[in-house]
Amino acid sequence: MKSFGFQKIVDRQIDLDKADLSLVQALARELTGWQRCIGCGSCSATCTAAGMGSFNPRKVQMLVRMGQWDQVAQEAVHCQLCGKCRLVCPRDVDTRQLMLEFKKLQTISRP
Length: 111
Ligand code: SF4
Ligand code: SF4
Hints:
The structure is a single chain. The chain is mostly helical. It has a domain at 34-104. The chain contains six helices and no strands. α4 (69-76) packs across α6. Helices cover 41% and strands 0% of the residues. The structure holds iron/sulfur cluster (2 copies).
């Protein structure tokens, strides 16, 4: 096949009717503040781990809202818990604490 220098974007449709939002609700009970995120991307722009790969804390925030827990857990392992994201967040979201909780998703059972 001839290469045109680009490729089709992978289908990322998400069926929200089938999304598992139980952990979002559990997270809302346990941790406050993360709902303040406005998706500005400042955390991603300054993130230590993002500078070394495709990790993107803003994307993780969006995946949480869509109940994509498998992806959240896979992404969170890349966080180095440096805390720079919190310093730049205009909404004072403690993304580092969130990532710490998401790392636990690898080992805890879901509600
Ligand atoms: S910097 Fe704060 S408000 Fe902006 S995307 Fe990151 S967590 Fe959300
Ligand atoms: S704590 Fe994690 S998400 Fe935040 S800047 Fe550091 S590596 Fe990135």
